[in-house]
Amino acid sequence: EQAGLFSSQYGTQYGSTDRICSTHDHQTNSNHNKQNCPTPTADHWVRADQEEEAIRRKLKYFFMSPCDKYHAKGRKPYKLILQLLKIVIVTVQLAFFGISNQVAVTFKEENTMTFKHLFLKDYDQSSDDSLAVYTQQDVYDHMFYTVKKYLTLPEITVGRYAYVYDIGVNGSALSLCQQYYKKGQIDPANDTFNIDPHIVTDCIGVNPLSVPNTQLTSSYKNFTLKFHKLINVTIQFQLKAINIQTIINNEIPDCYTFHITIVMDNKAHSGKVKIWLENQATIRECKDPSVSGHAESYTRVTFDVAVSLVCLLSLLLCGRSLLRGIMLQQEFVQYFKETLDRKVCWADRLEFINGWFILLIISDIFTITGSIIKIGIESKTMSSYDICAILLGTSTLLVWVGVIRYLTFFQKYNILIITLRAALPNVIRFCCCVAVIYLGFCFCGWIVLGPYHVKVK
Amino acid sequence: EQAGLFSSQYGTQYGSTDRICSTHDHQTNSNHNKQNCPTPTADHWVRADQEEEAIRRKLKYFFMSPCDKYHAKGRKPYKLILQLLKIVIVTVQLAFFGISNQVAVTFKEENTMTFKHLFLKDYDQSSDDSLAVYTQQDVYDHMFYTVKKYLTLPEITVGRYAYVYDIGVNGSALSLCQQYYKKGQIDPANDTFNIDPHIVTDCIGVNPLSVPNTQLTSSYKNFTLKFHKLINVTIQFQLKAINIQTIINNEIPDCYTFHITIVMDNKAHSGKVKIWLENQATIRECKDPSVSGHAESYTRVTFDVAVSLVCLLSLLLCGRSLLRGIMLQQEFVQYFKETLDRKVCWADRLEFINGWFILLIISDIFTITGSIIKIGIESKTMSSYDICAILLGTSTLLVWVGVIRYLTFFQKYNILIITLRAALPNVIRFCCCVAVIYLGFCFCGWIVLGPYHVKVK
Amino acid sequence: EQAGLFSSQYGTQYGSTDRICSTHDHQTNSNHNKQNCPTPTADHWVRADQEEEAIRRKLKYFFMSPCDKYHAKGRKPYKLILQLLKIVIVTVQLAFFGISNQVAVTFKEENTMTFKHLFLKDYDQSSDDSLAVYTQQDVYDHMFYTVKKYLTLPEITVGRYAYVYDIGVNGSALSLCQQYYKKGQIDPANDTFNIDPHIVTDCIGVNPLSVPNTQLTSSYKNFTLKFHKLINVTIQFQLKAINIQTIINNEIPDCYTFHITIVMDNKAHSGKVKIWLENQATIRECKDPSVSGHAESYTRVTFDVAVSLVCLLSLLLCGRSLLRGIMLQQEFVQYFKETLDRKVCWADRLEFINGWFILLIISDIFTITGSIIKIGIESKTMSSYDICAILLGTSTLLVWVGVIRYLTFFQKYNILIITLRAALPNVIRFCCCVAVIYLGFCFCGWIVLGPYHVKVK
Amino acid sequence: EQAGLFSSQYGTQYGSTDRICSTHDHQTNSNHNKQNCPTPTADHWVRADQEEEAIRRKLKYFFMSPCDKYHAKGRKPYKLILQLLKIVIVTVQLAFFGISNQVAVTFKEENTMTFKHLFLKDYDQSSDDSLAVYTQQDVYDHMFYTVKKYLTLPEITVGRYAYVYDIGVNGSALSLCQQYYKKGQIDPANDTFNIDPHIVTDCIGVNPLSVPNTQLTSSYKNFTLKFHKLINVTIQFQLKAINIQTIINNEIPDCYTFHITIVMDNKAHSGKVKIWLENQATIRECKDPSVSGHAESYTRVTFDVAVSLVCLLSLLLCGRSLLRGIMLQQEFVQYFKETLDRKVCWADRLEFINGWFILLIISDIFTITGSIIKIGIESKTMSSYDICAILLGTSTLLVWVGVIRYLTFFQKYNILIITLRAALPNVIRFCCCVAVIYLGFCFCGWIVLGPYHVKVK
Fold first, then answer.
1. Which residues span the membrane (chains A, B, C, D) (predicted)?
2. Nearest C-alpha in C relative to D272
3. Which end of chain D has fewer CB atoms < 10 Å from its terminal CB, N or C?
4. DSSP-derived secondary structure for C354-366
């Protein structure tokens, strides 16, 4: 008689798990049978007065799936249709953003590759991370090669780079520095050493030929390295460039500043000096963008606004449903307290809050925020591609995971999903046991085998 | 009593699924128990008059397997033997075509490889797709290297290539072009730019030394690139060759024209100019083929004709069986309507149309079409290797999949196949659930991680 | 009463499958219940006279496992111990041979590598199979490089090689040949050709400087290639060497003759000339072997003889057991015929022939033959390493597989092995179904995708 | 009644396996039902006198889990908390040691890499193990290159290396040796040879320029190799260095001596001379370590001492528990002997010895020993990194595996673990069968296929 009073939203017909506390003797409802909910006497249920009938009907309707609601009362499943629409437009928006983002990231990556080929001597792409030199002469050669290439950059490069002045030592454009220990008398022959581990940094500045202060241009050739106590040599400078490839996608170009650092690392003092180039790019809006014959495209912005509005509507509807659930819960608790003089346990109270709605609300908030940032990026008043990518990506992930909910409306899928959910705890438990042994082996293997083998590192 | 009136062709003895609508209370017949077929009263079946007996015998015979037919009436399973023969000859034909096709494709691939080694400077096979230059001088060097190699081709090449004249700019043989933006003032130093994104193409023609119009031969050295607004440099020309390797297989050689395009791509304006070579081959019949001492081999053509005839026979026999099924269905529906005054539902009507026959008919049509094209290719009046490959390949795939049908005639295999078919829907359903989550992760991963990692791209 | 009269040797206690024809109503005995064995009336079995009792005891004893025989009659399991001993010594012998064989094969492989580095220009080990040239000059360069290196071999090589004279054209040591079509007028410009596909071979001989006939030494520089109809260029010569590394293992060195062929292949006429080196080695006994201070080691030969004797003993014992089985079968058949007037079906007759004994006999024959060859190799009167390797390897494989038999003597293992054997037919059946579809896809994929992708080839 | 007298520690509630010998008719207790324990008559158990009640309570308490003990008697689970603490601190200690160890191993690896780049001609990192030469001139070139680089080492190297004098031939610093057969007349042309396999070693010493005995410096150029009987050429010398990188981790630098051996191996006499460099490092404490401004860090040593103390405490507690178990066992055996006049079988006696405690004791001993060595390493009086790594690594592995024990205190995990343990024997048995067949194939494959394929070697 009581079974079927109201059904959980997870399995309307098949996995129906009745949650009135008095029915806790059901063995299938294994998650909650450890909670000590009070068990009422059976005669409370015999009088089925008006009020009970009313709340029973309310509950029944509340836990129906959209399809059942349509069959029962003829209410069109507007929210369901809205969600299906959202899946499509959110994915389309993500795809558009993905293409824009790809252009920006590729520009940075390709410039890094160009700098490596231009500024590093004997650079070979296939063994990228193993560039190293072993003799003093080679260290000087690589160092001077880089500076020389920097000075002649405008003549040799295919791209269009501009120097950034007054950022280095003594207002120069390029800083050539060496770091060494304050004192570093090492005498392996006698097994003695006398070291002061404080680090001293010694820099000179170099300016391009175009700058009148010419004494800074050629002085770098006299830069002498203190090999016996050297820690590293760094060459730092900045270059500016404009990513005009975006014109093809009808977007206005961005301005980039590349912070380039070339490091010759002798920290290990093992006779091997590793060399690598780091490139950090910052994106800014260009001043005075002038693209002839370019009709500003409002289409994308319009689409983004549309997405935001759909998500806002979805947010409001889901919020309303969530609120209704909470209100119904209050009413239900009130009824139980007044009529039956019993408390409703927390597990049953949580049943009224639909987890899917919370997921949808989070997804909606992410999409709206992401869309606003995207509009900013497109109108070139913002350039935070990364945050926008994370927001839109996560939101799309959530929306797609939400599709699982719609599959539970089909009987066959519902059985499958309930089965999988029931099997999950045991699988996780087994993984825990394996993980513990695995962790032990990892720690042991890292120490005992690790340093002798490249792959374990 | 009614069970066994006629059996589905899928499982004569073991998976026999009786499909008379009145027997829809069988639980095993799960696919159709949702359809509302009318249920007749049982007494209709009691009078087993002449007509019913006749149609019952017809149905029984129709749904028998070839082996059962042989045992029942002694009818030799000609069609079965024909299909087994077809599997063999279709596979042999495919193997023959595969060898011919391989020769044609290999010739094209090896020529492409040759062109890359001849026309691209510093080409290295192991890093094929990463050829790129980073300095202005290198761009000029690579460009002039290609043109110079083209002009001296007959002296250096091991193969035998002929220039194709009058296809380039100003009736020249080779077109050397650059594309650039109409206006492209980029000033990264001040973060300003003034671009007109309309693309201007600027070409010069180059002619080999053998052509009298010599001014076109050396003028290419004056070709100046506008690096600051350059989009790409393309070198286009055509070469002709003859694939005489086919003589070894007793086939007449084909004539090839190679459309070679070398692209130096600066679209990204990232300081890196990617270089690649594209080679498109068109195959034509040579004029005036003269191979001394070559007796034209009719064997292959004869074999192809034989295959076509076998397939035509199979097509006719399968078509006849299909037609008989439809006619028997009409008769059956008529009988039900007149005698029992009931309609036969669609699920039962479809039982009369054997899916395997449709598969065989499609396969036969593909083989016949493919064989005709193959005869055309062998007699050098056609050269569409690709279409022929798809037709013959698909047809062989279908014929081999059809072998599954013959396995169902064995009792043990039939059980296995029916079991697998029953398990399929649940497996697909599970895959759907996984796919939805996977899709969500893909979209999210592509945007959030994609651009930073080469492998995800 | 009859169950347990005698048990199959496969499952003494657990999988006991009673095989007297009269007990064919047992459902577990599924393999043979289709055979039409005559079923006697039950009363035949009631009179258990003397004769029946005797044959029953004989059968019971025959089908016992060695352990049971020991428990029943106290007969020591000599044969079992012999087999366990055989596993050890056969494996040891194989290991000894493996080490010798490795030395011989390595010597050949390393010499091939040396020849590639010495005779091939620009040879790079990492891209071994892709050495190719694309210009006429390169073909001449590679050809002359090889001949020049051959002529100066004694001065440059680290190894000790001797020329082999009078094996080439005109009694020379090295043959330099080109093969071309008799007629090969190819005119791609006009799409015409005139080919006579008969192949003409044109050779010159080259002799090392040490040979007085000096005109053969330098004439090779005038060798002109007919590129427009060239099929291939081959350089063939022989070198002799002695593998003295075997002295370390106390073995007498072998003499090797290397047949070296360098091929420049233009068969495809695609502008790419592939170059490769083939090296075929023949092993002979050296004349006059003289190793000072080398005491001939008889240990190995002694061991090989011991192995042969053990295997011979095993062969005799297994043969005797097999013979006894056949004799007992005759007796049993005779008894059935005379007493019961019934025939014994073939399935039951085969039960008397123990498959494991056949396996052991084959293994023994292989080991004895292999040991004889091995003794021949060690005393340097034979050099057929390959045959010996196959014989000893296969024999060891069989002996190890035979270990499975001893595992069935343990109760727990017997259950496992019987279970696996029962599951095998269904697994094979499933694999058949998959294989058919897989084959279809393979044929289709090879033709449709194959030529365009390197990996499918 | 008797069931539940005392429970195994492995499954307090769920997998309770009663082990009194008289209850061996339980089918679940499958491990021991083959042992012939005496079965007492049932009436012995009827009289439940005082003594029995006492020992029963003792046993019950002994086999309780820590949680149950807490619930039963309120005893705080100090030992459990101590073990959980141990897991954390042992892992932290291992991580600290891992970082130190990594620095030491990396220093050695990078120096080896440096030596290979400095002393080996044409060394290429990507094809590390295939460096080989094929001509006599190349052997001399590589040999002289190495010696020349050694002599000029201080001028060229980036690191700081010191020569080690008086360790080579004639008190020199570098030994250049060749090994050859005493007699080695090989004549492949006539297939004859005359070899005396005794090995002769011929060495010269080379001294750096700084040493006054200059005649040893340049004489190496006259070193002539006897190629026809050469076995190998070795160059041996030692270099000293100091690993000052450890200053960054606030550790005092170690002194290293590198024993470098360069081998040119002609053992195979196959025309290919393989070249490789071996580097063996020995770590010693430096004399007179002087690091200005370096406050000796006592933190690590303090932590190591703390770890040792915790493990000592754990060792004592576990030892006490183990002892108590043995004492209770004695008492129990005594009781059985006196009261019931029965012996307790070994399987039941072993129940009293908790395997987990033994595991913990071993782990504790390892950690304490390892910690002492670690303190020695940190105070630079020891340098045996390897032993310390093995001790600490193994100990951490054992501690982590011990976590499994704590999981059995949770009901759900206990079921899982008992299930897995029950399935293990059958899995191992199956693996045995597969292993036997696999071994056979391995032996066969090694001999028959092995030498022809690189991967099988």
1. 305-323, 356-377, 383-407, 427-449
2. C114
3. N
4. -HHHHHHHHHHHH
- Which tokens in the block code for residue D150? 């050694």
Q: What distance in Å separates the CA atoms of residue D122 and residue D143, rounded to the nearest whole number?
A: 12
**Out of A29-43, A243-257, A281-295, C374-388, least confident range:** A29-43
Q: How many CB atoms lie within 10 A of CB A152?
A: 14
Q: Does C193 touch chain B (CB under 8 A)?
A: yes
Looking at residue C451, what is its pLDDT? 62
- Most confident listed range (A336-340, C112-116, C241-245, D20-24): C112-116
Question: Do C99 and C249 contact (CB within 8 A), yes or no?
Answer: yes
Measured between alpha carbons, how far is D391 from D373 in angstroms, rounded to an integer? 9
Give the confidence band of B262 by pLDDT, cuts at 50, 70, 90: very high
**Exposed (0-12), middle (13-18) or buried (19+): which is D310, by Cβ within 10 Å?**
buried
8 A C-beta contact, residue D216 and residue D175: no
Is the four-CA dihedral A263, A264, A266, A268 of positive or negative sign? positive
Taking the CA of residue A33 and the nearest CA in chain D, the distance in Å comes to 15
Of C186, C227, C445, the CB nearest to B158: C227
Q: Which residue is closest to B163 within chain C, CA to CA?
A: C189
Judged by CB atoms closer than 8 Å, whether chains meet at B448 and A394 is answered as yes
Q: What is the pTM of this model?
A: 0.79
Task: Supply the pLDDT for residue C64.
Answer: 78
Report the chain C residue with the minimal C-alpha distance to residue B387. Answer: C448
Q: Which residues of C touch D193 (CB under 8 A)?
A: 242, 244, 253, 286, 288-290
Cβ within 8 Å, pair C94-D190? no
Q: D422 vs C346, D25, D342, CA distance in Å?
A: 43, 19, 30
Cβ distance C141 to C121 under 8 Å?
yes
**How many helices (H) does chain D have, and how many strands (E)?**
12, 8
User: Token pair of A354, please?
Assistant: 């639909």
CA dihedral C378, C383, C384, C386 (to 10 degrees): 80
- The nearest CA of chain D is from the CA of C308 a distance in Å of 19
The set of residues, in sequence order, having a beta carbon less than 8 Å from that of C164 and lying 6+ positions away, is C173, C237, C238, C239, C240, C257
Inter-chain residue contact B404 with C437, CB threshold 8 Å? yes
Cβ-defined contact of D436 to C393 (cutoff 8 Å) = no
Does residue D205 contact residue D169 with C-beta atoms inside 8 Å? yes
Are C393 and D448 a contacting pair at CB < 8 A?
Answer: yes
CB count within 10 Å of CB D18 equals 17
Closest CA to D375 of D313, D311, D307: D307
Question: In this predicted model, what pLDDT tens digit does every residue of B110-165 receive, in sequence order?
Answer: 999 999 999 999 898 777 778 899 999 999 999 999 999 999 898 899 888 999 98
Give the residue among C380, C357, C361, C374 at the shortest CA–CA distance from C284: C380
- Nearest Cα residue in chain B from A104: B451
- Contact: A407, B192; criterion CB under 8 Å: no
Residue B249 pLDDT more than 80? no
**Beta carbons of A370 and A395 less than 8 angstroms apart:** yes
Q: Do chains A and C touch (3 or more CB pairs under 8 A)?
A: no
* Mutation target among D158, D242, D407 for the A interface, most CBs of A within 10 A: D158
- Chains A & D: contacts with CB separation below 8 Å: 189
Chains in contact with B, where contact requires at least 3 CB pairs less than 8 Å apart: A, C
Is D369 part of the contact surface with chain A (CB cutoff 8 Å)? no
CA–CA min distance A358, chain B (Å): 18
Q: At what angle do helices A78-119 and A355-378 cross, to 10 degrees?
A: 50
Nearest CA of chain A to the CA of B228: how many Å?
6
Q: Is the ipTM of this complex over 0.90?
A: no
